[in-house]
Structures are given as structure tokens and as C-alpha cells.
Amino acid sequence: MVARLTSEDDIARMREAGRLAASVLDMIGAHVRPGVSTGELNDICHRMITEELDCIPAPLNYTNGPGTPPFPKSICTSVNHVVCHGIPSDKKVLKNGDALNIDVTVIKDGFHGDTSKMFFAGKPSVLAERLVRVTQECLYKGIEAVRAGARLGDIGHAIQSHAEANHFSVVREFCGHGIGRTFHDEPQVVHYGRPNTGMVLEEGMTFTIEPMINAGKRHVKILPDQWTVVTKDHKLSAQWEHTLLVTASGAEVLTRRTEESRFG
Fold it and tell me: To which H or E segment does residue 118 belong?
């Protein structure tokens, strides 16, 4: 079933979930520094989500289905060559130059807000800085392709073209997804493709765009914990994510952060 909002009340609730998810990323940046553990960052976010925002952290105890262990933490923390779904740990202490993706999903009044952002602990390498910047540009180019009447392939093509023009590669095993009352719904929003192909976008649809871009080859593997995804060549990876609402003229970014004036 394709995620779609059909009432102004549902849209308002979805906007609120998105706003609250974004506020967690606005808050946590001040805590990202060398010497802090990803477990500490998880605990700080968990307290804000549950105590201050009165939300549910959607990743906590989430499972992909039978045989998959529940995700044990409230956020995902993916460091350097970890592509996505990194599990926070008190043993994983950030070092100077580390690149970190923090992925936050909250549930408020039955609706999900899902978003992620890249951070640096200390001073990054030139490559890491460039990869993170280009990956964010890929997200924005994907968002610019969204409007009622466009197609999913337009989004993937915009992202893939920009990544490959900068000599980076696009992860293909993981993608954006429909979202609303359900965490992961249709459509699947892949980050590569050909223009004018795929599902036609309709006003009211809600989904994430979350490109995962690698400095090396696109190939990935899943670690024995059945969650953590890493690059096979151990080269750096970066990801940015927003939750969007399709409108007649474009996309409303429901998880816009305070520094993103480009979205109004």
C-alpha cells in the first residue's frame, strides 16, 4: 500500500512528527566530538525523544521480520565505512576526523518522522568533507525532482547522475520508502535509475529520500549482528535523509532542520 495523506488533520500530524524528528538532529550536533561514544549519543537522543518530545523512538525493538533480532537502540549511528543501520555502543568512541551519520525516526500520535544528517567529530579529511557535501547535494537534487506527475525514476536519475559525476558510487541494496502511519511502506524510492520511468508521483504521497553514497565501489555487506551495513572495500560512505510530502508544485520537506533556509 502506498503511503498517502488524505486529510488536513493527517498532514498536520505528519508535519509535527517531522518537525520533532528534525529537532533531535538540531540538538545532538553539539554533543558530537572526539571522545564521545555512540552509545552516549543514543542515550541523549533517547531522553529527548521520550521525555521532552513525548514521542516513541521507532528503531527501538524494530524488527525486519522472523529471524531478525530487534534493533536494540533508539537511533542509528553509522561511522565512516558503515553505510547505514549502525548500532550505538558505549565501546564505539569517536576519534578525531570520524564522519558520523545519525538517523532519527520518531512516532508522534501514530505518525512517523524519519531523517538523518552527517556530522564530523573534529576535523575531517578532505575526502570525507567532499563526500558528505556531494551526498547532501544528491539528496537536494532528488528533492528538486519531486512533484505530482513526476516519476520515481526522475529522483533516482538526479541522484545517480550527480554522485557519479563526482566519481562516487550509489548503494543499490537500500533505498527510501513510503512512510506515514507505517514506518516502511510503498513506494520503494531507489537512488539510481532512468528519467520518466517508475511509479507516477501523486499529491499527498509521503516518502523518504535517503541516498547512501560511497567513496569507493557501491558494494556492501551486512555484519553478523544482522543490522550493520558496511562498504565491502571499507571506503567511506555518507547518507542524508528527509521525509517529504508530494505537492502539486513540488515537495514539502517535513523534516527540515533550522539551518535549511532553502526550504522556506
Answer: strand 111-121
Give CA angle at 259 (165, 26), nearest 5°.
Answer: 110
Position 2 in a domain:
no
This prediction's pTM:
0.97
* Torsion angle of C-alpha atoms 119, 86, 152, 138, degrees rounded to 10: 20
Distance CA 255, CA 119 (A): 17
Q: Is the pLDDT of residue 264 over 60?
A: no
List 239's β-bridge partners, or say none. 212
In percent, the amount of the chain with pLDDT more than 90 equals 93
pLDDT value for 3:
87
| Pairwise CA distance, residues 134 & 139, whole Å | 9
8 Å CB contact between 246 and 6: no
In the chain, the amino acid numbered 39 is G
Name the nearest CA neighbour of 77 among 110, 44, 124, 48. 44
Cell, residue 184: 516502511
- pLDDT, averaged across the chain: 96
* Domain containing residue 80: 8-257
Distances 174 to 7, 45, 188 between C-alpha atoms, Å:
30, 24, 9
Cell of residue 229, nine digits: 551495513
Would residue 1 count as lying in a domain?
A: no
Domain membership flag for residue 262: no
DSSP label of 201:
P
Total count of domains within the chain: 1
Model pLDDT, residue 261? 73
Cα separation values, 105 from 136, 209, 234, 236, Å: 19, 14, 27, 24
**Would you place residue 199 in the very low, low, confident or very high pLDDT band (cuts 50, 70, 90)?**
very high
